[in-house]
Structures
1.
Amino acid sequence: MRTEKQNFTKLAVPTQLRLPLLSIMLLFIAQSCLKDNFKSTRYVTLYTPVTKTLAEVRSDVQLSTPIPLKNPSKIYVKGNYLLISETWKGVHIIDNTDPSNPKNIGFIKIPGNVDMATKNNSLYADMNRELWTIDISDPTAPSIKNIIENVFPWYPGAQPTPLDAEIVVDYIVKDTVIETSGDVVEEDGQQIVFFDATGNLAFSNSASGAVGAIYGTGGSMARFAALKERLFTVDGSGLSIFNITADMKPEFVQRKQIGWLIETIYPFKENLYIGSLNGMYIYDLANPNDPTQLSSVTHVRSCDPVVANETHAFVTLRNGTRCWDGVNELQIYSTASLTSPTLLKKYPMTSPHGLGLSGNLLFICDGKDGLKIYDITDVNDLKLVKHIKGLDTFDVIPINGIAIVSGESGIYQYDYRDPNNIKLISTIDISKK
Amino acid sequence: MIIQTIHGTRFKTWFAGIGGGLDAYYQQSLPLFLDIRKNILHQPSTPFVYADGGINFVVEPEGQTPTRGSSLKRNPGSYYEIGVGYRVGFKTTAINFTIGHSYKGYKERQYGIRYIPNMELEENVLLEAKSFHLKRISFKIGLEF
């Protein structure tokens, strides 16, 4: 029997080198984990449209049961009622007989509605491309009296309106997340930004009534204004004129191209003050069927509602995504000469939105900086009368000693009859659900 | 490219310290870390192993994107590195050469505009949250004094 002895040569690794060698091995193993990567969670909201035919939409105009305010935009004061537009859905009717206890009494379905104005018992409201005239003699029983079709074809999102057309009346909203992962790559893409020059959160206008006509009162960021028996509306670039001499029977007069990036219209006495992203225009209404431009002033590109009194125009400029990279300030123009308004003074603001005038008081909604109330007796030295903080404010209608303020969380009413003791008297909550 | 400085104390063949640096890889950052290393030999020139661990602070915690109305906010992530090296010792100084595996991470949230049909757009909405994991082999040369 033969026995073989096998000799193995042991590879000698000094003890002190084992740790570095192990580390090097780990390093090479780790090379498989060298790819840069990322994990992403995208937050997406899906909107599924709910549609009705135009005929169904028109037949739906009646006062339905009250619904909570969710996305209010324009507010209009008509006598003891507040008309509050629920953006693109309709109009809330609020009984404001007692401003300390406003009552939501119903809702008029007007899909696509953004703006409105009133004269006597007529409510003029846009519905996509159409102008509807609704009889609100009894606000609890509204009814359509007139429709002018295809008169607002320039509105962003306006839909064609043959009777069998499907009109989007609502959206089913669903939030979701999309999880992705991948390798890290330098991103160098560009996106085009949609810009809606007329999609403001805004109020309606303050109108000075002609003899015999009773016009409603609104705010500073409106696109509808009614005075001198005319309804004036602005879209992104034009001014449309309707003759509303006969109640419930508006007649389209004409549309004038007046500029670009037009945002708001404010009527005062014989003039229209029109705000655009680029400046302010003043129009004369000697011939209300054909307003003529008296002057214009330009400023840096900013959102700029305007209000005016006999001697001055007050313009707030605001920057931001939709409002470009302008400034945040109040500008005061002398309108002693309407053909050549001159800039008198600028006051820095935080994020000014709408504003309103009542006598010597100027109300400014300064976004997240709340509501500011100034004494404008000396426009070169405004005195801050009251600064109400803790509100994110959009616009204000000061009327008969009550300032109606729209904010992120509600519609607030302040009693300012005693400017030294301005107090909150009621709040209409906005539901975020 | 990364520039680091580490300060610490030595005990026999062990070293522990606190380090910081400027790391230009992909997203500029400032890693702040603990450093531990062990010399293999009791000689001025010796191989060694090391491990770092800490927090990776981004240099620009806020940023822009090409999209109007969009902004980025970045938060710190973790940082680590392990590796081996060789120390060439002189009288009072030494030069260190290392090779290691490095990781740095950070989180990035993109805020922007949400377009809502027929509604006022919403601004500053959280659109996306990303976590980045950046890994590489590092080669470093260091002066010890």
2.
Amino acid sequence: MGRAAVLAGVGSAVPDNVVTNDMLATRMDTTDEWIRTRTGIRERRHLARGSATSDLAAEAGRRALKSAGVDSVDAVVLATTTPDHPCPATAPAVAAMLGLGTIPAYDVGAVCSGFLYGLASGAGLIALGTAERVLVIGAEAFTTIIDQTDRTTAPIFGDGAGAVVLSAGDQSQPGALLAFDLGSDGDLADLIIIPGGGSRQRASGIPAEPGDEYMAMRGREVFRHAVLRMTESSRAVLARTGWDVDSVDWLVGHQANVRILRAVAEHLGLAQDRAFVNVDRYGNTAAASIPLALDDAAGAGLITPGDRIVLTAFGGGASWGAIALEWPDL
Amino acid sequence: MNTTILDLVAEKAELPAAQLDPAHTLEDIGLDSLHLMEIALWMQKEYGVVIAEGELHHEQTLGEAIAFLDTRVGG
């Protein structure tokens, strides 16, 4: 069998501060019922003042290394939309915080699809022979780019981090990443966008408008494209693995909205209870959501060794993807 | 009236199809904006018909919405 990247450990970290729907309803015109019926979200975590993405990333990374039973890797790939600073990348700081030495470390930006792009990048380093072991992290201090008075975005997003260790192995090993599908459509860049703070606005010579530092989202159109692209991408990896949809044990989709997850399962012809859901407790944590979901599901004993898993995501860019694997015995 | 489409609307509204009054608006029967998108996506899956954002809206009566969807399926 060919050389492959094999998932060898998983970990996650979320801030302690729980923010419930009722707490949000005291600050803005919304209700617990409205948020739950539209999104399935009951609560989310908010980062403590003074903390940043690297703090969550390092903790999730530490737990993934422990899960894999290793204390060194050859590279760190960090998927994030909310780096500690606009420049430099946050991954080198995370590598330093974990005492991993002067290894290559870089950020990947694909918003909510970022973790899947990070896995593909990490698997690429292994395929090239550049690395034998890679720590791939998805981490977000997403609430820092959300206007906490905006009822269309504030209830949706939360902070968190998740990570996996990929090790060089072969495709017959449990945990091997068996098939990848990735895509993007820049014509949909305005679906999910922070208008200010980038070179487009800075080079215009026109100061950013108040609020332009926050993310804006066209929710209904995101919903439509997310369902179609996640379905299509999942089908592509099923075709590449030769798996029948009925043989899939878990669809671990990006946790944006329970209604998107249900619609993707329906479009795939998969039973709804095969779509793992933890968006109710963490909200949408963007690049962190898939590894956070994996750690949560495995920790709860829902995902068990040998289970066939399809990961899929859609996010800003627009970007999307899917990856298939069989869950290893960790 | 297309009973398959009516059944889908009833499922989204969580009401028996027989209880749905064609004169009521989609908002009256309790459909939110994501329900309208779910119906549009279902039309795409079942019939390959793309319903653009805004073609289904809350002010439409159920009768008008079903007639519109019927036309799109027929066309």
